[in-house]
UniProtKB/TrEMBL annotation:
Its main location: membrane. The chain crosses the membrane at residues 28-48, 60-81, 156-181, 193-212, 232-255, 267-285, 305-325, 332-351, 388-405. CDD domains: Voltage_gated_ClC (cd00400). Keywords: Membrane, Transmembrane, Transmembrane helix. It comes from the Bacteria. InterPro entries: Cl-channel_core, ClC, ClC-type_chloride_channel. GO terms for cellular component: membrane. One of its GO terms (molecular function) is chloride transmembrane transporter activity. This is Chloride channel protein.
């Protein structure tokens, strides 16, 4: 057997298809990629937490100038360092460029997203983490001479490390990295399953070790106890309501995108206006500020009037779509979970005898599946994030939200064929 130093020194020899050590060495690199992805994700998360605590101390009326200035800084970063792209570009590169991502976009993506998220934008860290850890996979693939499906698999494995580090679910994170690609012939990516699982699992352990996050659920929902066949009927109805919220989200996003596309000049004019808008909304409704990771527990544990929850759902939707359309950076998955939780809380107010956790989790799944087109991985992620042990009705709601969602995907490259 070749010693480790020869494995690292002679990639062309080891990766020859006739070489019996190819699989074991690739396995080693998938694990190492996950470790590096976990290290970066943990460092990113700890810096994000520190800055978020600082910005959250500047609340009340100070929210407006703080977020306006943050928007200006986000725009200047992008203007000076270049356009960092979005998740649609990542998907396009995975599907049509063999998994090639541009590492040169990482500085702009990292800095602009750190500012956007910590200052209070309604977008989360999944997009920057996935893009940057996916580019780590590119670097690995190029250094060891991979091509074709092996190259693409290494990129997807890097993406899985980023998803898992944020969500704390190796299985859900790996599947999300594959499902969000939304290829009509997604079976073509079956070779990336094991690489994604290996990378995501190693990233998960490293992230836990560095952040001391623990294995407990992220959001403390009272446990849902399965009922009878009636739960499945409820799940179908909740999926339809989640799809309706997905349609609202889609419409507000297209409206905001149309508005901001007509603002002339450099991008910092758009991001500054976006910051001003977000600041005004957050000043009046503080729960719309930030991406919802910590605020979601407040929704679970708190008591709110139905009128407040209805207003929160609408203005949070405006805040998320403004964040994305105005050029602020970040992802929309956790913000969509927050929207679904608010909708479930609102609906349970009309049905006080029903299980509130069931309503909230079903709508979290349905809203996210309606927008991101990821019903399977969304269900698995929520099982981990909420401590849910019986998720079949939630899967029904997730699939219902998916099939009733707008035909045109929000992430444009999900429906693109070449």
């Amino acid at each position: 057997m070749l010693p480790l130093r020869d494995l690292l020194r002679s990639p062309a020899l080891v990766l020859s298809r006739k070489n019996p050590f190819m699989l074991s060495r690739l396995t080693f690199f998938y694990v190492v990629l996950g470790v590096i992805g976990g290290l970066f994700s943990a460092a990113f998360w700890m810096l994000l937490e520190y800055l978020t605590r600082f910005f959250s101390s500047l609340s009340g009326v100070y929210t407006v100038p703080v977020m306006t200035l943050a928007g200006l800084l986000v725009g200047f970063v992008i203007h000076l360092l270049g356009e960092p792209g979005e998740i649609s570009l990542v998907i396009d590169n995975i599907r049509f460029r063999g998994g090639k991502l541009e590492p040169g976009q990482n500085p702009s993506m990292a800095l602009s997203s750190i500012l956007s998220i910590s200052a209070g934008g309604s977008a989360g860290p999944e997009a920057p983490l996935v893009q940057i850890t996916g580019s780590f996979g590119n670097w690995f693939a190029e250094k060891i001479g991979l091509t074709g499906e092996e190259y693409r698999s290494m990129t997807i494995a890097g993406m899985a490390a980023g998803f898992t580090s944020l969500f704390g679910s190796p299985l859900g994170g790996a599947l999300f990295a594959l499902e969000i690609l939304q290829h009509r012939h997604v079976v073509e990516y079956y070779k990336a399953l094991l690489p994604a699982f290996l990378s995501s699992t190693s990233a998960f352990f490293v992230f836990l070790w560095m952040t001391h996050a623990g294995l407990q659920p992220t959001w403390q929902f009272p446990q849902y106890v399965p009922g009878d066949i009636q739960d499945f009927l409820y799940a179908l109805g909740l999926g339809a309501i989640g799809a309706a919220l997905g349609w609202l989200f889609h419409g507000l996003f297209l409206t905001n995108r149309w508005i901001y596309a007509r603002i002339p000049g450099p991008i910092y004019w758009k991001t500054t206006l976006g910051g001003l808008t977000l600041g005004l909304i957050a000043w009046q409704i503080p729960l719309t500020r930030f991406f919802g990771h910590d605020q979601l527990n407040q929704i679970v544990e708190g008591r709110f009037t139905l009128l407040f929850l209805a207003a929160l759902i609408f203005w949070k939707t405006v805040a998320i779509t403004t964040t994305v359309a105005s050029g602020w950076r970040g992802g929309i998955i956790i913000p969509l979970f927050f929207l679904g939780a608010c909708a479930g809380k609102l609906l349970s107010g009309f049905f006080p005898s029903e299980n509130e956790s069931f309503f909230m989790i079903c709508l979290m799944a349905a809203v996210n599946s309606s927008v991101t087109k990821t019903p399977i991985s969304t269900t698995i992620l929520l099982a981990e994030l909420t401590g849910l042990y019986s998720f079949t009705p939630v899967l029904i709601a997730s699939l219902s939200g998916y099939f009733l969602s707008p035909k045109e995907p929000l992430i444009s490259t999900q429906g693109k064929e070449r």
